[in-house]
Amino acid sequence: MTIISNKPMHEIACSTYAFIGLTLEEALARIRENGFEYAELVLHDSPEWGHLRPADIMMDPEGMAAVVKRAGEAAGVRIIASTVSMSENIPWKRGEFEAVSRFLRILRIHIATIPAGRGNERMEVFRLRDLRDVAARNGVMLAVEPQSMMNWG
Q1: Which of 10, 54, 75, 123 gives a 20 to 30 Å CA spacing to 152?
Q2: How far apart are CA 82 and CA 79, in angstroms?
Q3: pTM of the model as a whole
Q4: The dihedral formed by the CA atoms of 116, 49, 43 and 131, expressed in degrees to the nearest 10
Q5: For residues 21 and 15, what is the distance between their CA atoms, to the nearest angstrom?
Q6: CA dist., res. 146 & res. 143, Å (int)
Q7: pLDDT (tens place) for every residue of the chain, 153 residues total
């Protein structure tokens, strides 16, 4: 393991995405070993792309939050943001997002990034407004990451 610097990187959060393939505990430990105090937690439908699945969080937001809190404390890393990628835009995904928003509130994570959808512009704007409102009710600010294939024109 190569340490980038002996000085903590106080103002930069490192994404767990850089450590896909490791457990969440291992990823957070590596983040700390590299001098980061803050992390972004990646949530994705596929375990190959994230450290937790929104569907699992939906089943037990409080329990999953406790797992993440323990992992962060053990590594000495504070999770301050999350990327939430849900592969399909179907109605029950909104329920997953509601649970994820509660999960983020429990962990005091106030920023969630989601990918922009593709397809009908009006439907996407409606979806984003709806998800923004769900996030806001839980004290979470929603950020939207445009996708390279996004085309409303």
Answers
A1: 54
A2: 8
A3: 0.84
A4: 20
A5: 13
A6: 10
A7: 444 555 555 678 999 999 999 999 999 999 999 999 999 999 998 878 889 999 999 999 999 999 999 999 999 999 999 999 875 566 568 889 999 999 999 999 999 999 887 777 888 888 889 999 999 999 999 998 876 554 444
